[in-house]
């Protein structure tokens, strides 16, 4: 009997790429545009992974829904501007490319579940020449954001993989809770934006300190 298909679903910012610099810059710019006090970098890093409107509403809970929408639009405009600059900075974390290629060779199916927009995710993967390695891409544009299980459920359906053979790999508590809500295994990574103790307390089944550790983990 052949081994069952396995699916590794990755978060993007904080897991595959370090996108905090552009996110923080864009949030600062949007705040300044509307003369809204910027709360600091750490609160912004804390919400990376959520859909943008949800993230903004958490960073600026005192503002109205209309204010949140204006900030979102300004954020997106500035983020897209940063993408065209020569010093555009959204690097892959160490070992990501090599691990993705090795997982593909092993026959593990790959997907992404992210709070990024669809356009933003595709740009990121194309810029790093990784787009063709993933068979399912799910973003905040497609339905409920994290920690709702919708993105994982769609990925499972796209891949034709059973829940018990799927892994959600991410750096935030939102990823761990989403995995639990969807009934898949959760793998917390320690190089992202939420600390290891929070990943564990939010239900991470596994913790890894370098992406290469995932290769042996999916063999279990």
Number of domains: 2
Helix content: 40-55%
Tell how many strands the DSSP assignment holds: 6
Using the coordinates shown, work out and report the CATH topology of the largest domain.
Answer: Rossmann fold
State the order of secondary-structure elements, H for helix, E for strand: EHHHHHEHEHEHEHEH
**Total helical elements:** 10
Span between termini: 17 Å
Envelope shape: globular
> What is the name of the CATH architecture of the largest domain?
3-Layer(aba) Sandwich
Strand residues, percent:
5-15%
Rg result: 17 Å
Unreliable spans are none
Main beta-sheet strand count, sense and barrel state: 6 strands, parallel
Based on helices, strands and strand pairing, what is the structural class? alpha/beta
CATH class of the largest domain: Alpha Beta
Nearest-integer average pLDDT: 94
Give me the CATH superfamily of the largest domain: HAD superfamily/HAD-like
* Order of strands across the main sheet: 3-2-1-4-5-6
Brief characterization of the structure:
The chain is α/β, with parallel strands linked by helices and 220 residues long.
Structure overview:
The model has no long low-confidence stretch (mean pLDDT 94). This protein is of the alpha/beta class. It is built from ten helices and six strands. Strand 5 (185-189), helix 9 (196-201) and strand 6 form a beta-alpha-beta unit. The chain has helices at residues 20-33, 41-46, 52-59, 65-83, 96-106, 118-127, 150-159, 173-182, 196-201, 213-217, and strands at 7-10, 109-113, 136-138, 166-170, 185-189, 206-208.
């Amino acid at each position: 009997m052949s081994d069952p298909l396995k699916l590794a679903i990755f978060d993007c910012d904080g897991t595959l790429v370090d996108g905090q610099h552009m996110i923080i810059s864009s949030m600062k710019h949007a705040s300044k545009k509307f003369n809204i006090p910027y709360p600091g970098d750490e609160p912004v890093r804390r919400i990376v992974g959520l859909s943008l409107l949800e993230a903004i509403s958490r960073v600026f809970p005192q503002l109205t829904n209309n204010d949140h929408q204006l900030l979102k639009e300004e954020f997106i405009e500035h983020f897209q501007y940063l993408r065209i600059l020569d010093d555009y900075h959204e690097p892959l974390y160490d070992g990501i490319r090599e691990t993705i290629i090795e997982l593909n060779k092993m026959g593990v199916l790959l997907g992404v579940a992210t709070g990024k927009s669809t356009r933003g995710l595709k740009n990121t993967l194309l810029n790093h020449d990784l787009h063709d390695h993933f068979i399912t891409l799910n973003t905040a544009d497609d339905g409920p954001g994290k920690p709702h299980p919708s993105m994982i459920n769609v990925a499972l359906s796209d891949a034709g993989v059973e829940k018990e053979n799927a892994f959600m790999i991410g750096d935030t508590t939102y990823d761990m809770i989403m995995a639990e809500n969807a009934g898949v295994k959760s793998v917390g990574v320690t190089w992202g934006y939420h600390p290891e103790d929070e990943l564990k307390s939010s239900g991470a089944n596994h913790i890894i300190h370098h992406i290469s550790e995932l290769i042996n983990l999916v063999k279990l």
